[in-house]
Amino acid sequence: MRAFLPSQPRFSLPRSAFLQLYADDAPSCAWVAEQGRELAGAVFGHSWGRIGWIGPLAVSPRHQRRGVGGRLYRAAVQGLNESGCTIIGLDAEDHAGINGFYQRMALPYSVATLDGCKAVMPGPLDLDDLLIFSRSQSARFSTEWTALQRTLAPAVDLLPYVQRLHQHGFGESAVVMQKRSAKALLILQTGQRLANDQVAAARLQVCWLAPGMEKRALFSAVERLLRVCHPACRFLYLRTTEDAGDWLTEGRCRVIHRGRRWATRPSALSADRQIWFWE
Ligand SMILES: CC(C)(COP(=O)(O)OP(=O)(O)OC[C@H]1O[C@@H](n2cnc3c(N)ncnc32)[C@H](O)[C@@H]1OP(=O)(O)O)[C@@H](O)C(=O)NCCC(=O)NCCS
């Protein structure tokens, strides 16, 4: 795998298209701050049922430390609360200034996060009945997804977000089946619009495992999905919390970046090691 990594791209999302997705998903969380006719900052958010995520949040350097970031943050929280979110989380860089800001914003819980990357190897294209794709079998996908989601995390409703991703051409979400029963839910962000300048990449944004599903088997399913849907994809990215670093070991991923996740309640930090999010 190392042979692939020197040319590893710095992963970047197509920002304007992605921000449009967030603005559609949670319009009451999308705010800009203007000073005169100048853009001073902006915030976006999205929601998964009772869990709301904030980000990106940014203030231009010449407007920082004047209260703009705090006002944007509070406006986004209010929008998420009004749409029913009771838990707020966000991912950020891990450095003193940003940590100081989120402590001040009264986000009491935080954990370290790790970003990993692995090369997607060429391999067989057989797909039998292991995976159910959201697009090719949409009715069964919704039924299986909803049933497993209710069992694993009743507070979270990801289906509207998944459907939004598909509308915007970002997603290849799947229910992974083993022996005719649903064993994992995953949201894979892929597609032309996620292509890096030189090398196509994908990111595993959400992954939930039912008891008995091995992480290694999950990675094998993801790679098979990529080979079929996005044969040009060379790299898979994922993020996990540091205490669930076995995801990276099991997936044979290299750690490429460290960050910090903040939340209003510890459950939003995915203490359940069978579930993790990239935000
Ligand atoms: C983090 C960020 C949004 C803060 O915006 P801001 O407008 O400067 O924040 P505010 O002026 O509202 O700060 C509120 C409080 O947070 C704390 N704070 C903010 N920036 C800080 C810093 N660099 N160091 C220490 N404390 C800081 C302070 O307590 C501050 O109050 P004070 O100025 O009265 O001391 C801004 O620095 C930024 O855009 N950074 C780059 C992008 C980024 O990292 N975004 C976060 C990742 S999602």
**Strand percentage:** 25-35%
**Name of the CATH superfamily of the largest domain:** Gcn5-related N-acetyltransferase (GNAT)
The level 1 CATH classification of the largest domain is Alpha Beta
- Helix-residue proportion: 25-40%
CATH fold label of the largest domain: Aminopeptidase
Structural class: alpha+beta
Uncertain runs are: 1-12
Give the distance, in angstroms, between the N- and C-terminal Cα atoms.
26 Å
Oligomer description: single chain
Mean pLDDT over the full residue set: 82
Overall domain count: 2
Radius of gyration: 19 Å
Describe this structure in words.
The radius of gyration is 19 Å and the shape is globular. The model is unreliable at 1-12 (pLDDT under 50). The longest helix has 15 residues, at 68-82. It has seven helices and twelve strands. Strands 1, 2, 3, 4, 5, 6, 7, 8, 9, 10, 11 and 12 form a twelve-stranded mixed β-sheet that branches. It is α+β, with helices and mostly antiparallel strands. The structure holds coenzyme A (COA).
